[in-house]
């Protein structure tokens, strides 16, 4: 048996082939270079430029929070509060930090006015941030804070409060959950009222609690206060009178607007049906519609004074000019125009007093379609008044070149043209201001406007006021418009409603008037949509609303009476001597 040779590990032949001497040195130098680079980088970041590490740390714990700005207040012309922001709290959560026991979940859900299932569903939404409830009262928010629940946090917000409720709803509109304007003045003047939020940087722990207030980045800038032209007392008078008329005549809707004849300021603007902006649950489109500005309708006989005024201004007729309406009917092409009564020969003044369609058409035939169109355009029909109010309509006034003879005739007495109630009230400023038309304003003016548009001469405007006073007295279409102690002038309108392309058996009853006649201060326009209690003429339905609003408004403004304290028609029945009136 041969003897085996033992070879140890250190005598392994493979080890006789050594590595190159430069190789370990290179590796060693590489490792040392990396170490020096890391040490240098650490020294640079910690000693020379530590902003990077600071930013990384802040990204985990620092937060920039918005500091809400208070929305500006809205007041009436006398400074009475109409809209104000009140502090509220919003409850939010970091779902991953929330671990509610069943009793805590029930308590929290009860304070949030939601069921436990809804609360759990929101917390399980898989997001890092979730609102549980917006705009809670401070008292309820404090009760939630007292529960000391991990992951449940609060932040301050503001909620709009409207002391006037439904009376001011269509003027003010409302704001959304983020305190941004969504309707009415709140939307129209949102840029003025909203202000700009500020910002501050804070340090929070992993539970979201603020442990250090680092710095204020930007101070909040509160919104500006806004003084409207609205008079809260007159607004309430108009609202009460309109609501009463709606109930009396079982109407579908109604609207009224009151203007200051001296300045063009809107003193009241009301609609029915309305809503409470403080509680907007179950709102309908009918409640939200601001009919004064957005609903267009054919005005009917309220348009007649403008045509007569144009004829007086051009010297085509005089107040005493006789117009033959004896037949009570008039044919143009295949169409027939008629009056509600056979009036016989009428003076131009009586055409307005009796509201004769035929008489108005015969006056309108003195003009070309272009001349009538220019008058209507100068009065502001067919285009918005640019009040800045959301949804303001412009009405419909077709180009004159498309008018047929029968259309020119019907447009002279308010059919075939559509307007809004505020457009009509604005146009009547031309009669109240001695022929001059000024823009309207929803905000309080510090001085009367200067340089209005001239529509009629002063003499014509005063003659028209005299005719409109006849229309609102005994023998006219609106004796119920009279106000004890004041001379009033105005015109009724009773228009058949147009739905689609067809006229219906429904009516829009309206009245636009001014008072006092001797020195006009107010323009009041009233529209009642679809009265269904038996009466539908403007003189019976809308004129009494005008009288009720005008009487209260003139007394609230302290306007001196210019007539007997007994209405004219009653004074004549009782044999009271009525003072002579100056020529208008």
UniProtKB/TrEMBL annotation:
Q: Where is the signal peptide?
A: none
Where do the coiled-coil regions begin and end? none
> Active-site positions, per UniProt?
301
Q: Where is the Penicillin-binding protein transpeptidase domain?
A: 254-550
Entry annotated with the keyword Manganese: no
Q: Where in the cell is it found?
A: Cell inner membrane; Membrane
> Main subcellular localization, coarse class?
membrane
- Keywords for the protein's UniProt record, in alphabetical order: Carboxypeptidase, Cell cycle, Cell division, Cell inner membrane, Cell membrane, Cell shape, Cell wall biogenesis/degradation, Hydrolase, Membrane, Peptidoglycan synthesis, Protease, Septation, Transmembrane, Transmembrane helix
**Pathway it works in:** Cell wall biogenesis; peptidoglycan biosynthesis
SUPFAM superfamilies, sorted = beta-lactamase/transpeptidase-like (SSF56601), Penicillin binding protein dimerisation domain (SSF56519)
In terms of InterPro entries, this protein maps to: Beta-lactam/transpept, Beta-lactam/transpept-like, FtsI_transpept, PBP_dimer, PBP_dimer_sf, PCN-bd_Tpept
Residues passing through the membrane, by range = 26-44
What reaction does this enzyme carry out catalytically? Preferential cleavage: (Ac)2-L-Lys-D-Ala-|-D-Ala. Also transpeptidation of peptidyl-alanyl moieties that are N-acyl substituents of D-alanine
Q: Which Pfam families match?
A: PBP_dimer (PF03717), Transpeptidase (PF00905)
In what way does this protein cross or attach to the membrane? Single-pass membrane protein
Q: Which residues form the Penicillin-binding protein dimerisation domain?
A: 67-213
Any idea of its EC number?
Answer: 3.4.16.4
Which purpose does this protein serve, as stated in its record?
Answer: Catalyzes cross-linking of the peptidoglycan cell wall at the division septum.
Recorded family membership: Belongs to the transpeptidase family. FtsI subfamily.
Q: What is this protein called?
A: Peptidoglycan D,D-transpeptidase FtsI
Taxonomic source organism: Aromatoleum evansii (Azoarcus evansii)
